[in-house]
Automatic annotation (TrEMBL):
Pfam families: Exo_endo_phos. This is Angel homolog 2. It comes from the Eukaryota. PANTHER family: CARBON CATABOLITE REPRESSOR PROTEIN 4, PROTEIN ANGEL HOMOLOG 2. Residues 1-324 form the Endonuclease/exonuclease/phosphatase domain. It comes from Rhinolophus ferrumequinum (Greater horseshoe bat). GO terms for biological process: 3'-UTR-mediated mRNA stabilization. SUPFAM superfamilies: DNase I-like.
Length: 378
């Protein structure tokens, strides 16, 4: 399950978004029991929660989830922001191999001055031992990217940082990746350049206005276009969204001067890398949801308040080979893979306004929970 549960703090800071709501449904004392009831009802093995308020997490959310059999990991936002992301899993189903928090704030990179975070867990399914030994690990990532519709440059860089961490965590000895589930509130709409980059594994962003990256707003008048490259080299992440091995020219200890040919080579490589406006990643990711109702073509929505009703929340997963047939080169990256068996239906904007939008008496966030059932091939 992926669920942005709306932190009380953010609700109160943005009260203009909730003018349509009856006051009592906005109190945390009313909302939390409802949210807990939903979590209990759906009974997912893994929860990816966003906008988890730190004080509520400590006093209510974590203790309640632990009593339901979940092990909880939490990453607070930086800069004294009072909320963060949590990944909780049933310890009857998984054991924890590693916890990898990601901070998108970097004091040494002026572009990265926002306090968003991600969290990447490596889990091992608790299974009877298979003939081939231990069951494969699964990588679960959760994030809440920057909201600001006009800062697509920051959003893409935050995404690249998350993808680099996932590549690091999901990387297996044979060079392939274990199955990946990447959840969260990406503050980007289906079909936008950021969304397409996740699904297609490539994006040529040359000439793209920074306000067009997420597709949240239509107008991009007077906006600057993305610089090439988007982020500076000292971030240490390549255009392929992996951590760069620092290239140190090999020099004999006795010799203080690089030979001229070595120097030329290094410079040529750097220039070529700098000028490329192509981003890539090596995962073959599918979206659990199709974003439109097949019969009507009406959009699904994952969030609905006074200002907008759109899809910004996603569950992406590495599909098994059969599901991405005809994409050459993807086979390498997959062993096992996940098969999508079922998903919880989303609603249309019209559906939601018939119950007075979100939050309401029964649904206590301004987002809907996303839920998917997978089979992991061992």
């Amino acid at each position: 399950m992926s669920y942005n549960i709306l932190s009380q703090n953010l609700l109160e800071d943005n009260s203009h978004l909730y003018r349509h709501c009856r006051r009592p449904v906005l109190h945390w004392s009313f909302r939390f029991p409802n949210i807990l009831k939903e979590i209990k009802h759906f009974d997912a093995d893994v929860l990816c929660l966003q906008e988890v308020q730190e004080d509520h997490y400590g006093t209510e959310i974590r203790p309640s989830l632990e009593s339901l059999g979940y092990h909880c990991e939490y990453k607070n936002r930086t800069g004294r922001k009072p909320d963060g992301c949590a990944i909780c899993f049933k310890h009857s189903k998984f054991s924890l191999l590693s916890v990898n928090p990601v901070e998108f704030y970097r004091p040494d990179v002026p572009l990265l001055d926002r306090d968003n975070v991600g969290l990447v867990l490596l889990l091992q399914p608790k299974q009877p031992q298979t003939a081939s030994g231990a069951s494969p690990a699964i990588c679960v990532a959760n994030t809440h990217l920057l909201y600001n519709p006009r800062r697509g440059d920051i959003k893409l860089t935050q995404l690249a940082m998350l993808l680099a961490e996932i590549a690091n965590v999901a990387h297996q000895k044979d060079g392939s990746f274990c199955p990946i589930v990447m959840c969260g509130d990406f503050n980007s709409v289906p079909g936008s350049p950021l969304y397409s980059f996740i699904k297609e594994g490539k994006l040529n962003y040359e000439g793209l206005a920074i306000g067009k990256v997420s597709g949240q707003e239509q107008s991009s008048r007077g906006q600057r276009i993305l610089s090439i490259p988007i982020w500076p080299p000292n971030l240490g992440i390549s255009q392929n969204c992996v951590y760069e091995v620092q290239q140190v020219p090999k020099v004999e200890k006795t010799d203080n001067n690089l030979t001229e040919t070595q120097l030329d080579k290094t410079e040529v490589l750097v220039t070529a890398e700098k000028l490329s406006s192509n981003l890539q990643h090596r995962f073959s990711l599918s979206s659990v949801y199709s974003h439109y109702f097949p019969d009507t073509g009406i959009p699904e929505v994952t969030t609905c308040h006074s200002r907008s009703a759109i899809t910004v929340d996603y569950i992406f997963y590495s599909a098994d080979k059969g599901e991405v047939a005809g994409q050459p080169g993807t086979e390498v990256a997959l062993v096992g893979g996940l098969k999508l068996l079922a998903r919880l239906s989303l609603l249309t904007e019209q559906d939601l306004w018939t119950v007075n939008g979100l939050p309401n008496e029964n649904n206590s966030s301004d987002h809907l929970p996303l839920l998917a059932k997978f089979r992991l091939e061992l």
